[in-house]
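note to self — DONT lose this again. spent like an hour looking for the file last time. sequence + predicted structure for the chain T wanted, 255 res
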Amino acid sequence: MKKVSLIIVALFVLSYSYAQEFKIAVSDKNGKFTINVHDCDLQIIGHDGNEILITAKGYEKPPERAKGLKPLYNSAVDNTGIGLSVQESGGNLTIQKATRGDIDYTIKIPSTMHVSISETNWHGDNFTIENISGEIEVNAKSSDIKMKGVSGPVVANTTNGDIDIVYKTLNQEKPNAIKSINGHVDITLPSSAKSSVKLRAMNGEIFTNFDVAMKTSEDNINVYGGGKIEGAINGGGVEIKLNTINDNIYLRKAE
């Protein structure tokens, strides 16, 4: 019995060190959620509550020898116990990574919040956003960007990653701009979505199963490719600008 109890305790300690949580309430479910991170796999999921719940996997505490000292490479102060600095003001929440460790974060936020993500170095992984109806802005360097169940507007940029976005609905109030330099751009819209599109794949191809009513095209586009395409789907609507330099664009209807 004693041996079994020790095993249970050991498993509890292991699971605690592997996955830890931090929770904070927000006063405005329509506020802005801003996060600046590096060296992490980040997943943001929208929910109906008014709390933000952060789960960390892979976080390691500073060594005991550093007790009473502060790190110089990270000016942000960890006030969560999981390697993050969290500040809330007027319903807006700002998070900054406060450790050099490679950590995976899953963050549940009110689905109506506006989301802003910035990657602060080139050690990219994955940024995943699900079930968010607010505005979304992502500036990445080497991370792939994946979104599902979003409404937009979306502004997303990455240098060395792919971008895959599945829209639940298409907000008609503000334009969308999505760009990768060395990755594909794959966008799924509802089949009835109305949009005015501006597309360019400089060294790739553009594929779609929408009927695009062409507005303008460059004279050499059918011969050489790489030019700009402007047109409308379902009669036109909010602007969607898609760009990639060294890969393809895929614009598809939701099944």
